[in-house]
Specification:
This protein has about 150 residues and is of the alpha/beta class. It has helices at about 25-40, 55-65, 85-90, 105-115; strands at about 1-5, 45-50, 70-75, 95-100, 130-135, 135-145. Strands 3-2-4-1-5-6 form a six-stranded mixed β-sheet, with helices on both faces. Helix 2 links the parallel strand 2 (about 45-50) and strand 3 (about 70-75).
Amino acid sequence: MKLYFVQHGLAVAKTVDEKRPLSEVGLNESSKVAIFLKQHNVKVNKICHSDKLRAKQTAEIFSKHLNIDNIVEMSGMAPNDDPGLLVNDLLEEQGMYVGHLPNLQKVVSQLVAGDQVREVIQFQNSAVVCLEIEEGKGRVSWYVPPSMC
């Protein structure tokens, strides 16, 4: 099973807008990465995102460029949510999960290293990590940050 994890695009500061929408850089970088994935024929069946505006906007950008109609808000993906909530709900083959740190970091660490504290990859805004999961154990297949696109 392939799963994709995306840290939301760069957002404006809370002092600028409490809802923290994506900044111009966040919009552009998320689009660049999404276009790169499309050009490399990455297939995504469903996109799940947290209830935060910046994650929703990032998910919508990926949805648009990858032609995905199946996009849903999902609980358990907020920055400080228990990573176990998301790990238990990862059943969607080729599902993309757009969220936040430290939650995503801990989810990926749990899936790859069996330990939420062990850092297995350093996330960046708008970057995508692909995990391949076999028999409950994950491995990093590839990682695409905006600087590669």
